[in-house]
Structures
1.
Amino acid sequence: MALAVALSADVAPAQERVLDDDQAAAVAEAVERLRALRAEAEALLDALAPELRREVERRLEAEDREVSPESADPESTSPETAPEAETSVDPPPSPAEPPAEATPAEGTGAAPPRAAAPAAVGAEPSPGPAAAAAEPPPPARATQQPARAPRRTCNTLALFDSSGDGLFSGSDRHWRHFYLWNDDGDAAVSPEEITSLFDAGVRQVRLDLQRFDAVGDRSGEIEVGAYIVLRSPSARRSKFANSGRLVLDTDDVLRSRGPRLVGPSGETLAGLQPIVAGLSLVLPDGQRIALDCP
């Protein structure tokens, strides 16, 4: 009922005024929509059982009272707050302790034995030294936390995000030039040892490479965000069945006018080259970007 009344109040015009054609059409449309909403509200209320309808009306009226400033009547708050104040101010029902004891406690030192109860409250400073002794362990934990080296973020694959969608995927120009390499033990990349990212089940790679690790002749692992983890064949644990080192076909990239891969001494690398720390990408404008995190 309250909902229907609210809608009917919106439909009723406040006052007569002269409108042009556009304004009249807009008003007519608004009135028609409000009438439809009112009809829907009344239909909803009619479909409810009597007790449910009364409950709906009660809640709507309660919400209206909460929204309106008139609902903040002092009558509703005073009876609630007054008894609470009375109960909170009533602690003196302890006749066992005469008020005379409070006066000696202020002036003489013999009162402390009587003020054993306040002493219990004041006893908090006594465990203070114990708490101070317990404080050293937290600093020890703080010294252990910095032992973990924070992950560094590399953004090298952003150079190959030609679509600009924030991911390296099949929609990018050089996606087909990347492969996964499963070394057979000779440490040399051959066409028989590589698999395209698509055939390996990789569909997209986040641009923010988490880290490059180099361990001896075999690169450790390249973690690529939360989408895929590309690991070397020597990794003990792998989250994906098709894992391997990320390899770039540098010849195809150069033919596509992409960045060229150079070694630590600046020499241009050709053919299939694994993406490892220590290498760099040189853009067509001459800008050089290292593939490791300094």
Note: The chain has a mean pLDDT of 67.
2.
Amino acid sequence: MHLIDDESSAADLAFNQRLSPPVVRLLADPHLNSPPSPGFAKPPPPPPSADARPIVPNTVLDKTWPMPSPQQNPGLTVITRVPLPAYLTPQAVLEALHTYEPLIVANPYLKKYERRPVQLEELVNDAFFKEDGFKLQAFIVHDRVPIIPGVGSWATKDIVIPCVFQSFEHGVRCRADAQAGVTVRSSYEVRRAGEVQPDHPSVVHNQVTRAGAAETAGDYELVEIATIECGSLVKPFVKRSFSNAHQEVLQRVVDEIVRTSQTQYVYQ
């Protein structure tokens, strides 16, 4: 396992791993594993002392996560869009998305989340992360999912999902490796309304417009383009559950950005 931290040398990593130039540029990003933005997450602990023991993969944060196979099958593609209010500027939405936390805390089943080091192996075999991106960060997301809805906390299951985020000009890329071999690669983008359209009949297209939102909608929208890799047996279930859940999640992302921007305006 190769952990990437602020003191890692991209040149040394490239020599040892025979990395391609685009990956070298990704690893040279000064924001790699940088502290999260203030106001959304706790700062990381101070660096260990010189005599501290080396990292041993015996905890959730330090374990070696199974690496997804390179994308050979395009899988299932789901496009979800939410209109942005006219008073919310595209730049404000992008700045919020680039902190990553709004995309995490919008999950209704979230129990907790924490930063972890980015693993080199998570990047070199995945073309999803491109050289036009910056600020690679990784998280562990802990979900508590109800098995039998409405009967209490005893009928729930705790799951752990490792995620990797990358910012780029139009938004954020995120890969989440869920259980049962399900890998979700999502691109959250701020686009002009109607700019992103399905390019194939098999693409699932969800338009989210909450009651009253159409009257305040501006010229832009938040679009999630998600590609889901999973087994054929679970694909119908994943397709249905993902489509329904992410309509709510994407609206919650916008609501959180609106709430945060209004709070900042009040205190200015």
Note: Confidence is low (pLDDT under 50) at residues 6-16, 38-46, 48-62, 69-73.
3.
Amino acid sequence: LGAGAGSETGFARGGAFRGGQVQPFAAGGVVAAPTYFPMANGTGLMGEAGPEAILPLNRGPDGRLGVAAGGGAARPVSVTVNIATPDPGAFRRSEAQVTASLARAVARGQRAT
């Protein structure tokens, strides 16, 4: 294939040669064997040391370019705490500690999912 034919056969959408065919990778994929691909100044080689992942990059709200994490937005969490105490004054004095402890527990739960 000539350099001009590359864009017509899939490289404009992201692709690589494998067995003489063009395979698009614009949505990502895995290369499990050594595979050549064209570069501006020659030819690149991927998968030469084992499987390699190809990941599409997205620009975040902050303008930085990177890989987006899967799973979407965080799910809303509702926590109900009922406290019965014979000494409301003592609870009010420790309320900040209880609130902080609950916030840490909820944060741990969100990271674990």
Note: Residues 3-60 form one domain.
4.
Amino acid sequence: MDECTAHFDDLDLETADLILKLQLQDVEELRANSKDKNRDGELNDAQVALSLFEENIESMRSILFDRQMTQSITAAVRADAEAIADVIREEEVACEDHAHAHRLNGSCVTSEVHLQSGDLSKKIPARLAGRYVSQDVGYELLKDIEPDKWREPDDHGQAESSIRGSAREHALRDPSNLVRDLPRGQEVL
């Protein structure tokens, strides 16, 4: 279905939705103007084609709205990343204090919580964004995280050639490269 929605990648959601609504109206007009006579509720080929086309349009609308929601969630997480990291650090400190208090008290810690390290990898959200939101967003996030990695001078201290830069950019935009190094279990959220 991605190949069907690829036509809408360069359009804003409102424009894409308007196009799909107009196509749905066209389907309804064709259905209303159809003078086909059917026996006992049987559908002819034209009616089946219209029904399939209508289902396809509804699926594309659903995908576009899902994409918008995913982009909105990504934007919210990016905007709140610092606050989220602060809360995680506070939780880590509270867990450590709790475990330390149990040890000082001589009681057994029955359920110690082990959170991820305080420095959450920024590569993971970048790669997930590249995979599930937009390759351009993932590319920009990766480029911001590791700018030196993507602008390596050659052996003589010269900047890379345009051919090498183009090949590097193409490799970055490949979704398989964006998610290659995700930790096990974090490939899909």
Note: Confidence is low (pLDDT under 50) at residues 178-189.
